[in-house]
Amino acid sequence: MAWHTRLLNFIRHRRLTPDIEREVAFHLAERTDDLMAQGMSTNEAMREARRRFGNPKLPRTRADGPDVLTWLESVVADIRYALRSLRRSPGFATVAVLSLGLGIGANTAVFSLYNALVLRTLPVSNPEELVQITFGDGRTSFLCVQHQQLRPGERWRRTQRAGLPGEWRLLPHTRRSAGVGPTHLEW
Amino acid sequence: MPRQKNDILQGTLVLLILRALEARPRLHGYALTNHIQTVSAELLRVEEGSLYPALHRMEQEGWLKSTWGTTEKNRQARFYSLTAAGRKQLKHERDNWERLTKGVNRVLKEA
Known about the structure:
- The complex is a heterodimer of chains A (about 190) and B (about 110).
- Chain A is an alpha+beta fold and about 190 residues long.
- Chain A is built from six helices and four strands; from the N terminus they run αααααββαββ.
- The radius of gyration of chain A is 40 Å and the shape is elongated.
- Chain B is α+β, with helices and mostly antiparallel strands and about 110 residues long.
- Chain B is about 55% helix and about 15% strand.
- Chain B has four helices and three strands, in the order αβααββα.
- In chain B, a hairpin with a 5-residue loop joins strand 2 (about 65-70) and strand 3.
- In chain B, helix 1 crosses helix 4 (about 85-110).
- In chain B, about 30% of the residues are buried.
- The interface of A and B includes residues 23, 29, 53, 54 and 56 of A.
């Protein structure tokens, strides 16, 4: 049954249910009459009518079937069933939980790293003022805050004492596009 | 001893309801039960508990329409009648049934 019919039934639920109850009541009344006409006492006839009808709750329950509540109940039942099955085969459950856990964990770890390194700006107040200083072959570098009005020459004089040739570059907002291009220091 | 089952086979109930309403338009549930029982010479007995769910399902399918009315005994009852879609469904189910019984009979009578 289509979901919109279920929804409609749910909305109409209050109207639908008494309808069925009235119908069943009518059926039982007619049956009782017929049985009494065959010579049964009122009580006997009523009991027999109910017995023949079967479970008078049943048609209501079945007619209630296609609505959202019942659907939800069956979803809950499915979940319970899944849990029971998992408990019955703990080996499978362990493997499933482990592989899911590892998968989710690894993904989270990799993304966190990528996010911190590439996607987000540096966790400082004015990241655009940071300067990366690279020495010689480019393997050694460090970050420092660009002082106002820093002139390349002036900066260099300090590092020169360490006896290293170098260059410096500006770090923009993210590290990915690092460098507006290295500016070689001259001295 | 083989089990006797004169309760109506699953799936044939719809066919019987459609046919009964073709022969007698505007029946309520109780009359339907009696009609099927009488016409089949007591060979078939509608399981009363499953009749009403079937009627409601069929109404939702658009094969039946129902109205509340008053019986001769001045009781309120829900009367069902066939729709055009119901007639089409009856033809379809009748063809199915005839094909099925023909096939089963041939298998049973095979030499």
